[in-house]
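Thread title: Can someone regenerate the structure for this chain?

I was given the following input by a collaborator and told the matching structure tokens would be attached. They weren't. Posting the sequence so someone can regenerate them.
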Amino acid sequence: MIYQLIGLGLFALGFSHKLIPLSRLDHGVVKYLQEKLGQPPFLAWFKEIWFFGRTTFAMILLVLLTCLNWKLGLSALAVLGITSGIEKLVKISFFRSRPFSDYEDIQMLQPREPVDPAFPSGDAMRIWFLALIISIALGNNLLFGIISILLAVVVSLGRMILGVHFLSDVLAGAGLGCLGAGTTIWLWQILQLL
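Best answer:
Regenerated them for you:
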């Protein structure tokens, strides 16, 4: 239940980009992060860890999870599918442009230029979903939980450093990921009773 509440809160906070003063903050955060961390040696690292937020990585990990724990794996696959559908629906409904296309002082540094709208961040959604689900799958191991959360934070920061997302995009994506993870855990607990 806590993941769902955190997720709803972050998702709602992501809509703050509609408020003019906060949209300026969105631009300022991306510009600052890109100036500080958008060059060597950091840039190469953020380009590499981008993979952890991609759909391919999520599918590979969830198929492996299904082999280890079919109830949790199938629940995660189903909920991620629904959550991804919500993400796509929000993207086409709001059609928010990317930071690099809105502002001349923001560069597109990602290896491949994205073609879909920015809001919410699908990569942030997937990495937060995976970080929370895999931690549960491994028995709530504290060390692995901390490592997976740190990876989710770094991938989320990378989305802004690469110039492809605003802070509000990443918050909304992380919120959807937390909401999906919480729903998966709830569904898995119900399946455990069967």
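Residues 96 and 144 are 35 Å apart (CA to CA).
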